[in-house]
């Protein structure tokens, strides 16, 4: 081959590859729009044609595809095709058709993007999930939460100390981070038997939470291009951190979880007892398990630990932040909360027990509004349609397609929540109305795949908020704008890094 032929090949080859790529993109788009089994579902043509539409909204302007999806429902109705293979639903009547106990709807391929395939959270098959979830359930049951309530009470006392220290020094306390730290300290103490003690750090865990938030975008990246995940996570940590700090952080956090799991397994193998049963010990023990239960390896356990940590931190933190901010910044609501708490707990320094706090109707309504407007997981929860397909609002969706619903859409449905963005505890006070609107209230999901940590989350919310409101009745908050309270969706919702964080000031 002479030099001329070599150089023309160097030009022709990339052009040919580009043309091939373009042609296959056009071919796929035409197929998706006109011949795909979901071609009959309404929605923007571009969203049905290519995944790049979703990618654009997940990366540009914060990760806010969930906001766009709600707007698409206003245009297209209760079913919207949001990717070539996925239909988003907005009618609350459909929620329990998908999310019921014993549901045959498995989790979609999106869950592979988390890279924690063994975890109960990411397990896609309903059959395998039933066995894994069965092993996890007893550890997070209400009974167990009541037995281990002291773990939460210790953090409520620490929070009291932190507020007192800040107020007596004339300083503001950053509750945004303090609430998240409570959540991580509780779960690491409760489930791992080894507390991270973020509340004791001078930055209240800010660096830890910045790291967790930094991991977020990689999830969308791996979802869009799954091949990247194996390459990225297989890299030596130092190289990964150099090439992509967030991927380095994923590797670092998983390595940390793995180390904890290995230490417990080693202790169990050598017959050393833990001071208190941990989730690892429970999962490694064959007692009271399904006959098909397979004892997990250390790597499997690491997936479970990582998922429980990630699932609990910002979800609980967001709910506490929204509830507390809305109460403290609204004197009328704050006055009602204080009156109810003072009547039940005349001595502000007594321990406010979870079961007594739960009986207070107004505080309970405040917590429900906090959960409603913090949205739990704001984005969609995608599920594979099982064999036989399914019909939603008269539209048939074939098996193998993905259907999804989201709290962001349901929690703002005006038929259930008039003036939806108003923080209005009163809407929960009439028991008949509360039962009606409960249908569209899904912060924890529902059914078989609903949140396993719900009893623990409620305990944290009641005890931390009840204690704070009772002991600091004159505290004031800084002012947050809607832009400070919006979420970037990385499955958990994260306030943008540039957002002003929730602080309180006051005197003691
Ligand atoms: C206010 C706090 C919380 C909210 C709003 C929340 C919300 C949710 C939601 C919506 C799901 C369903 C996710 C899906 O379908 O993919 C879920 C699942 C899950 N949550 Fe939570 N969560 C909270 C706290 C916790 C805590 C404290 C834990 C700790 C144990 C936890 C552990 C889990 C796990 C392991 C799953 C997966 C369950 C399964 O697939 O069987 N969550 N959570």
From TrEMBL:
The keyword Iron applies. Belongs to the cytochrome P450 family. Heme binds at residue 451. Its cofactor is heme. This is Cytochrome P450 monooxygenase-like protein. The lineage of its organism: Eukaryota, Fungi, Dikarya, Ascomycota, Pezizomycotina. It comes from Hyaloscypha variabilis (strain UAMH 11265 / GT02V1 / F). Pfam families: p450. CDD domains: CYP58-like. InterPro entries: Cyt_P450, Cyt_P450_CS, Cyt_P450_E_grp-I, Cyt_P450_sf, Cytochrome_P450_monoxygenase.
